[in-house]
Design goal:
The chain is α+β, with helices and mostly antiparallel strands. Strands 1, 2, 3, 4, 5, 6 and 7 form a seven-stranded mixed beta sheet that branches.
Length: 156
């Protein structure tokens, strides 16, 4: 069986879309190394596979990605989260993802997500985006090209 789906297709397309739509970077949440300077956006794949439909050419499924903006201003991160959401819903943003085989199903959970760090707050805001993708695969099974019925004269 061969499997053609790769989650990096989704993350790479989102990284480019967020950069194109806002001018700021998108990084993996809790990734190694130092984060970029504020403001920036991070992603977490919160629901990696929600089965939708399966056929002989593969499976269509959905996934949920949480996008969170990080910064020093509550209003600033809210504005960036709204700008990112608007871009993803725009025809330009939808086309950018569609060209990679990704469909935006919905956005939800737009909230402030501030985080208290030691003696100060990291200002955060974000939303979740539900995406639909196709996992194309081919089973390495010999096809049935014919069959023969053994007729023994109507007796069992």
């Amino acid at each position: 069986m061969s499997n053609d789906f790769d989650y990096t297709t989704v993350t790479s397309a989102l990284i480019k879309a967020i950069k194109d739509g806002t001018g700021y970077p998108l990084i993996a949440e809790n990734s190694a190394g130092d984060p970029p300077p504020y403001p920036y956006c991070s992603y977490t794949i919160t629901s990696p596979k929600i089965d939708i439909e399966r056929d002989y050419e593969g499976a269509i499924f959905e996934l949920v990605v949480s996008l969170t903006w990080h910064g020093t201003s509550s209003v600033g991160v809210l504005n960036l989260a709204k700008k990112a959401e608007s871009y993803l819903k725009s025809s330009q943003g939808r086309k950018a993802l569609s060209d990679k085989g990704i469909v935006i199903v919905s956005t939800s959970g737009f909230t402030s997500r501030d985080n208290f760090i030691s003696i100060d707050y990291e200002r955060m805001a974000g939303f979740d985006v539900q995406l639909r993708v196709r996992d194309t695969y081919v089973d390495d099974v010999e096809p049935i090209e014919g069959f023969k019925i053994n007729d023994n004269g109507g007796t069992n």
